[in-house]
Design brief:
single chain, mainly alpha, Substrate Binding Domain Of Dnak, Chain:A, Domain 2, 4 helices
Length: 123
């Protein structure tokens, strides 16, 4: 009997987390993917010329990943980390916008979207 109650409680918690941050998790994950693709594109191209973009994307991907993990577990710190994620994503968007590479342009858009979404939930 207790197992059923615990399992039901776990399902309810998972559903609440998915409902609470599902949109933000999806957008952050898209940003992570765009950053990683952008990094690869920059490394294949002229890595020394693109070092600012590479570093910004690495930072952005890492902070988005951490933010997703905290949102997924419904951490009480998720909203505060979202504020930092918004700031770093915005910095990355601005850096990527300096370049004409197709992947940089896509990344800038994904980062801007992530920044706006994370800003909307940050405390």
């Amino acid at each position: 009997m207790l197992d059923f109650i615990c399992n039901d409680l776990i399902i309810i918690i998972k559903i609440r987390i998915q409902m609470s941050f599902s949109k933000q998790i999806k957008i952050c994950n898209a940003c992570i993917e765009s950053c990683e693709v952008c990094i690869t594109s920059c490394l294949v191209g002229n890595a020394s010329k693109m070092s600012g973009c590479i570093q910004a994307c690495r930072d952005c991907s890492d902070i988005c990943s951490m933010t997703v993990r905290l949102m997924s577990r419904n951490s009480k710190h998720a909203n505060r980390l979202a504020a930092l994620c918004a700031m770093i994503s915005d910095i990355c968007a601005k850096e990527c916008n300096k370049y004409e590479d197709e992947e940089c342009i896509k990344c800038a858009k994904a980062c801007k979207k992530c920044s706006l979404e994370c800003s909307s939930i940050s405390n």
